[in-house]
Amino acid sequence: MPPLHFSEIQFADWRIFALLLIALSALLIWRRGPRWPVLVAMVLLIAGFFECRLETSVDDSAVRVRFGWVPVYSRTIERRAIAAVAPVTAPSATASAVTTDAWGWGAHWERDGTLAMTIRGSQGVIVTLRDGSRIRIGSQEPGALARALAPA
Hints:
By secondary structure, this protein is α+β, with helices and mostly antiparallel strands. The chain contains 4 helices and 9 strands. Strands 5-8-9-7-6 form a 5-stranded mixed β-sheet, with helices on one face. A 4-stranded antiparallel β-sheet has the order 1-2-3-4, with helices on one face.
């Protein structure tokens, strides 16, 4: 296995975990109406809990991004495909700005066509590939990630 130049594991903010726990607790004590909607909601909440993790690693050949403890989304980007890398910060570090079109949490496409993979905070890097596509990777250490990803 090639040596790692950068490795980071991020978890969602503790308030996300608290919200999931409160919602799950409320569903467990729900006694009215049919049970199947409650069971579906519980499964979705538990699945959400398992996706509250973002792992980023950079070695000599590629950057690997895995979303979740049970990674339902992962992406490997060959280093030779990277044209440019730049650290970025969302317009505001407030939760309201993070959940708007300016940033957002999770693995999703932004309006400008950028693939975003973030789990917390307002920092990260924009990776521009040689084909012109862009990927935003959330990081609590954007400078270190940008240096590790800089094209050779």
